[in-house]
Amino acid sequence: MTAPSRPPSVDSLARSLNSSGLPHPICVDVARAAIEAGDPDSAARRADEFRRTLLTPVVNATGVLLHTNLGRAPLAHHQDASAQTVEFNLDTGQRGSRQAAVGQLYARLCGAEAAMVVNNNAAAVLLVVAALAAGKDVPVSRGESVEIGGSFRVPEVIEQSGARLVDVGTTNRTRLRDYEAAITRANVDAAMVLKVHPSNYRVEGFVEETSIADLATLDVPVVADIGSGLIDATVPWMKGAPPAWLAGEPAAVQAIADGADLITFSADKLLGGPQAGIIAGRADLVERCLQHPLARALRPGGLVLAALQRIALIYLDRQAGTEIPFWKMVGTPLVALEERAAAVVEAIVAVHPSARVERTEALPGAGSAPGVTMPSVGVVIDGDLLEQLRRHDTPVIARSRDDRTSLDFRSVDPADDVTIVAALRGGA
Fold first, then answer.
1. pLDDT tens, position by position, 227-285
2. C-alpha dist (Å) from residue 290 to 131, 293, 296
3. CATH for 59-72+332-426, among 3.90.1150.180, 3.40.1790.10, 2.60.120.620, 3.20.20.80?
4. Angstrom distance (rounded) from CA 136 to CA 189
5. How many angstroms separate the CA atoms of 152 and 387, rounded?
6. pTM over 0.85
């Protein structure tokens, strides 16, 4: 009888995993788990599985331009490892405002008196309601008392702010007189009216809503959560008329011009920036938000502020159409997408004979412009190749339906076409 072989030491097995790129303490944990499972040979596989749980760059070939699961708006931002004036006033040499630099830029962009930044739009709504209406009532249309992705529910946000929700109108129709009746009700102490963009759904048919301009005639401040962060409905940074899919999407400039006292919106959707929430409007109301204790808990860090500043300067310079990745994707002509897709098919057809170019429909995504699409072009291949694509060194995320894999090129940066070709060639 031969003696059973001894397992390798944890240290030696861990050192054999150095090529995985993982820190040595993680390799030790992986090696120990493999040995304890009685399967030292599984260490390399376990290391790869762990590595794939970490944040990693991917190619978004889903056709959803603002894919929430893939980080929404793609954004490249480099910052040197140096100190910056996050809270320092260069003129006085004293402590300055974290909000001053970026706030002034977004106020200018929106046509507002003042603006500030928090860490996302849910935080923006929470802070505004807490600062303006804690202990008081907030009328909201029943058709806008919504739940948005990630369990953001308007009634719960209002409750957490310390205010009381007052339902107004019906699910499909809410008129100005419904708000007037709610505000003048004997037991209601309305501090503001909240108008919420439904964001990720659309109600059609026998419907009616009250515009910001009409709400502005009420005797209380109007706060409009415009959601997706479109700065200007005229889209002055792009050539020609605004894209058809933007029709009806609320925009910051127009909301302020129509009389909204405050607006809130996301920075990582149609704005094309990092995750953040913007509050803009009347200077006195923004100041109340700045002075509220929650403002410190919800404030962004220097990296986000620097990225937002760069985005704002690009918009003010009318360069968003060529400098912000989301708007570059939106503005890519169909003929350019067709040429790229045809080149990819030519490069992979020997491996995937069924590969062909097809017209597709891309989506804005992230709850922006719900229910609408934009024309696009993709490569379609018979069979479900999703796992193969995900396991490439730089994973490619695509879609599969009816045993066909579709890669939509409107959401793909042209520099990533070579990665798609490599991923499709690799597993065949």
1. 889 999 999 999 888 998 898 899 999 999 999 999 999 999 999 999 999 999 999 99
2. 9, 8, 8
3. 3.90.1150.180
4. 6
5. 31
6. yes
